[in-house]
Structure formats: structure tokens, C-alpha cells
Design brief:
binds iron/sulfur cluster, mainly alpha, 3-stranded mixed β-sheet
Length: 138
């Protein structure tokens, strides 16, 4: 079972192998592969830093405890109708995304994220709405 904070549920949709460091990318790619290949993998929703934040490099500004990141987590969970502490599978999460999210939600919920301008997260939401799995990342 993986422990994930709210906004990382969206980040996984747009993940294309980019990240803050090699260690961060390896960890996220492993998780992404696991969820793609086994959507029945269980996830527990946590408050604050999670198993992806654990690999955030020491060199950069540590933003994982910033208020605006907590607010982003809360906004994502609210949109999906989920609460901290809940456990569900990745495929449950994909179903909720199909029911409750549209690509333009990324522009609102993730307004302050530096990765947003790549457009991959909106693309990732659209792919789930189209019934596709997470995109393969090599
Ligand atoms: S815009 Fe940023 S916070 Fe939002 S899903 Fe993409 S990478 Fe994650």
C-alpha cells in the first residue's frame, strides 16, 4: 500500500518522467509503473508529506510543508469527494476522476505549480476521461 497526499493523485496523471532529481524520478517512476500495471494497488490518503515527498532533494527549496501545497491537497480531495485517512485502489481513484474532474480543473487547483505550463497534467486528466490507463513512462 502506498501513502499519498491529495495533489499527487493529479501529478501521477501527467507524469512523463520529469522531476526534481534522479532519485525523485526513480521513486515516482516506480510508483507510476506499479499503478499502471496493477490498478488494484491500494492507496491511503495522508495529510502532508508522503512517499513521493520523501525523495524531494535536499538541495532545493523544500515546499512540501507549504500552506499552499496543503491547500492544493485539500482542493483535490474535495473535488474527488475523498478524505484524509481513506484507503482505496488506484482504479477507484481513476473512476472518481472520470466522474468529477475536467482538464481545466488543473488550471484552478494547481494555479501556482511550476509544472502546470507543460500542459501534461491536463492531458493526463483527458486521457483518464477517455478511458485510457496512465501513460507508459520509460
Ligand atoms: S500542475 Fe503541478 S501540482 Fe498540478 S498535477 Fe501537475 S505537477 Fe501536479
Amino acid at each position: 500500500m502506498y501513502m499519498l497526499r491529495g495533489h499527487h493523485l493529479f501529478c501521477l496523471l501527467g507524469y512523463r518522467g520529469m522531476g526534481y532529481s534522479q532519485e525523485y524520478v526513480e521513486n515516482m517512476t516506480y510508483l507510476h509503473h506499479t499503478l499502471r500495471n496493477n490498478p488494484k494497488t491500494r492507496i491511503q490518503l495522508v495529510k502532508g508529506p508522503d512517499q513521493l515527498c520523501e525523495k524531494y532533494p535536499n538541495s532545493g527549496e523544500y515546499h512540501c510543508q507549504n500552506d499552499n501545497i496543503y491547500e492544493r491537497d485539500a482542493a483535490v480531495l474535495e473535488k474527488l469527494g475523498l478524505t484524509i485517512g481513506q484507503t482505496l485502489t488506484w482504479s477507484d481513484i481513476e473512476s472518481l476522476i472520470q466522474k468529477s474532474i475536467v482538464p481545466s480543473d488543473i488550471q484552478v487547483v494547481c494555479e501556482s505549480c511550476s509544472w502546470r505550463s507543460y500542459g501534461v497534467c491536463e492531458e493526463g486528466v483527458q486521457e483518464i476521461l477517455d478511458g485510457k490507463r496512465l501513460r507508459e513512462v520509460k
